[in-house]
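Researcher: Next sequence.
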Amino acid sequence: MNDLQKYFEANTGRLIHKWMHYFDVYDRHFARFRGTDVHVLEFGVFQGGSLDMWKDYFGPRCKIYGVDINPHCKALENENVTIFIGDQEDRHFLKSLAAKIPRVDILIDDGGHTMRQQIATFEEMFGHITEDGVYLCEDLHTSYWHKWGGGYRRRNTFIEYSKRFIDRIHAWHSHARALKVDDFTRAAHSLHFYDSILVIEKRPVGEPMHRKTGIATVPAYESPRRQKANGFKTRLRHAMGMKDRPR
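Model: Next structure:
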């Protein structure tokens, strides 16, 4: 049991509501920030319990920002915790939020969980996360719930939207006009999908390169099927009066 789960199990303060398998995911991706002056932005204040949990986990140097649509959440501000009131689907609000927060090392989207909210928050805020920061969106199971705008393989759910990220990190290898290297390709080092969670770890990414070292001693192998196919191509070229291509 990691320290986050220990805090949760011993909690008698403000209410925290979490799926139990989330704690291992949090600790795996957030542990390196402990004891630093990390800036954490969490959408979805709820009862304020998770904000207290993050303060305890990251230590006294952290700065926590909370966002919620409920104006009563503003009363939960305390030392090193600032709360903004607004709708995370409102892109104007998100742009103003990015302008007010000097730095975001970790973004946790635990807000309203609707498709539009999750997509708008990612599109407006991902670029504001520091170059070695972490984006985490949780409760992705709402992508399968109609009440939240979801449904299995339904267009424009956040799950279907985020599947495109797999293509985008491979854009370096694409010859298709529809898939080109973009800012996401250059910023997203890795994608981690868990049950109901997507984590994107950022790091400046350059064009992949490969090298060889050492001496080749094993003769090249060509399968019988490949030999047969190459033989047919050679006979065809000769029949057409074409010369063999140099290798």
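Model: The first strand starts at residue 39 and ends at 43. The CA atoms of residues 35 and 104 lie 16 Å apart.
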